[in-house]
Structure formats: structure tokens, C-alpha cells
Amino acid sequence: MGVEVIRVLAYAVLSRAMLVAFSLIAAWLLDSENFGVFSYVVLTTSSVATLSAVGVNVTCNTTAARHHADNPELVVATVSSTLTLSWVLAVVASAFWVAVTPTAVSAVLGIETTGAVIFALALIMASTTAFEGTSYGLRALPGMLVAAALSFVFAVGGAAIGAGTLGLMGVLGALLASRLLFLVLMAGGALRILGARPSFAVIWRYRVVVTQIFRKVGLPIALAAVLSAPVVAGAVNVMTRTGGLRDVGEFNIIYQVFLICTFPASSISHYLLSRFSGNAEDLGDTVCLKSFAIGFALLLGGIALVVLWLAPGAMELAAFAVQPAPALGIWFGISAALYIVHLMFISYWSSIDRGLFVLIAQLMWAAPMLAAMIIGGGAVFFAQAFAVGCVLQIGFHWLAYWRTATRIAAERR
């Protein structure tokens, strides 16, 4: 398991670092107003992609882990069906958020350009999610690493050249190109292993089975995504109107550091999900995986806490155009430590078909964010709401885990 874990971590850093690299380079080369617009587009698009890929990663992951050897056509049918759903939702969600674009953003980028970028990027990112989940289920880690490495190199070069020559439009164009390259590489690798191709005939043949799988595994996660994605996008929208583009830029640059600190845990959680799903009958292996998940979460959570606390000072030394407040690093550091534990719980609940617990935990997180949206405020205020939500989320997870473990222990006596 050690080599696989190293590969998962390497993939996590490279794949997440693409967007972080774009944000860091943009924060260095663009002025604060243009970086604020870039941040608004990136954060809104990420939220739309999350909403569009409702439960897709988990559904494709578990299906691939359980059926790639005996029924690869079912895996392809699952990927194809969830992709179709993602595309429809991406169109609807993109149209809504473009319609409510703040004047501060449209005045710089233009409403048509803003809409085109959000729509195209959301489709690409949502599609990548499906093939990423499938690749985790197939344990195709070497191919995932190659795809992430090539895309990362392209992203760094493209961001630097784009920002230096065409400014904001150059960065956005390079971002679209690098994400498209990543999608093509991930999709090609997964389909090559499966040896089957998506088609409407396959979707129709397995429509009942895929519906049952999605309803059992993906739907509760989907409802959580439907909840969380509009909350983040809405928070950024309100922040733009009440705090300004500079606040959005400060929030985004620390949020990207938060994501790169938590994404390794996210990748490990998807890896654990495929292991939990594939070894459900092996109690000894399951106990070992649980211990690993807890230990890893505590270790990575501590590292994330320190990195985020130091991030604002490092950006000040690097003379970034955007200088985030130290308080942002503190609050996001607390959030990262708690969120990493939350990710491990997601894998465990999904593997034992308790996706409803994920939805309830997400409701606990969303409540303070919704309250902050009603009140309105700047970057630090929303970072505080984010942290409070993470505290409530973890409290629910531990309570639910204790009750579930107690019930299972009683049944085994």
C-alpha cells in the first residue's frame, strides 16, 4: 500500500497545483483589480463544476472498483450517464451565475466573455471529475501521474506566457487549454484500460442498474454538492459586492493554498474509498485502513495548519500584488485541519452506503456560510464563517461515527 499512497499524494499535489500555479502567477503579474476578476471567475467556475459533477466522482469510483474486472461495460455506462447529467447541470448553473455577475466583474471582462469562460471551464472540469473517479477505481495511478505532470508543466508555462503577453485574457486562455489537456489525458487513459467505448446503446442497456447505483451511492453526495457549490459561489458573489474585488483576490489566493493542503487528503480519501469498497468483507483490512485514515488525517491536518498560517507572510515577502491579511491564513488553517478529517469520513460513509451522513454534515457546514451571505462582509468574515462550519461538520461526523460503531459492536455480540 505504501507505493500506492506515495503515487496518490504525488498525483494530488500535481493535479491541484495546476490551479494554484495559475493563481500564484496571476497574483504576481496582474494588478489587484484584474486578479480579483480572475479570482471571481475561478471560484465561481469551481463551484459550478462541483454542482455539475453531482456525486459523479464517488459513483464512478465505487463502480469501477467493484466491476471493472467482471463488467467493464457497466463502468462505461456509469461514466457516460453521469457525464450526460453533468453537462446538463453545467449549462443551467453557468447560465444562472452569469446572469447574476456583479457589475465590477462585467465592467472589466465583459458579460459575454465571462459567460463563455465559466461555461467552457465548468464543462471541462465536471467531465474530468468523472474520469478521475473512474481512474481511482481502476487503480490507474501511474497514468494519472503522467497526465497530471504533463498538464502541470503546460499550465505553469502557459500561465506565465499568457499573463506576460495578454494579461487577464492570456491567463484565462491558458487555464482553459491546460484543463482541456488534462481531461483528454485522463479520459484516454481510463477508456484504454476499460477497453470499451461510451455509447447511447450502452447507457440504455444499463439504465436501470446505473440509476440504482447512483441513487444508493451518488445521490446523497449529489445533494451535498448541490448545497455546497451554490454556497461558495454565492459567498464570492456577495463578497464582490460588499467587500470588493481586492477582497475576492485575497480570499482566493489563500483558498487556493487551502485547497492544495487538503487535496492530498481528498485523493487519499478516494483511494481509501476504492479500497473500502473492494474489501468490504475483510474486517482486518478495513480496521487497518481506518487506522491509516485517522493517522494520516491528523498528520496532514497539522501540516496544513502551519502552512496556511505562514502563507500570508510568505506572499508579502514575495511582493505579490495581492497581500492577504494574516487572519485569513489563521482561519483557513483551522478549517484545513478539520476539513481533512471530514474527507476521511466521506470515504467511510460512502463505502458503507451512508451517504446521507455526508449530506447532513454538509448542511452543518453551510449554515454559518448562509448566515454570512445574509449579513455580507469581506474576506476575513467569510473565512471565519467557513471555519465555524467546519467545526460543526466534524462534530456531527464524530457523533454519527460513535453511534454507528456502537450499533455495529452490539450486533456482533
What does this structure look like?
The protein is an all-alpha fold and 413 residues long. It has one domain. It has 15 helices and no strands. The chain has helices at 2-29, 32-52, 56-67, 72-99, 103-109, 111-138, 141-166, 168-194, 200-205, 207-242, 245-278, 283-317, 326-351, 355-375, 379-412. The relative contact order is 0.13.
Q: Domain count, please report it.
A: 1
Q: Roughly what fraction of the amino acids lie in strands?
A: under 5%
Instruction: Count the beta strands.
Output: 0
Number of helices: 15
- Profile the largest sheet: none
* Rg, nearest Å: 20 Å
SSE run: HHHHHHHHHHHHHHH
Structural class designation: mainly alpha
pLDDT below 50 for ≥5 consecutive residues: which ranges? 279-285
Report how far apart the termini are. 31 Å
Main traits of this protein?
single chain; 413 residues
Short description:
The chain is mainly α and 413 residues long. The chain has helices at 2-29, 32-52, 56-67, 72-99, 103-109, 111-138, 141-166, 168-194, 200-205, 207-242, 245-278, 283-317, 326-351, 355-375, 379-412.
Strand-helix topology:
Layout: H1 2-29, H2 32-52, H3 56-67, H4 72-99, H5 103-109, H6 111-138, H7 141-166, H8 168-194, H9 200-205, H10 207-242, H11 245-278, H12 283-317, H13 326-351, H14 355-375, H15 379-412
Helix pairs in contact: 1-7, 1-8, 1-11, 2-4, 2-5, 2-6, 2-10, 2-11, 3-4, 3-6, 3-10, 3-11, 4-6, 4-10, 5-6, 6-8, 6-11, 7-8, 10-11, 10-14, 11-12, 11-13, 12-13, 13-14, 13-15, 14-15
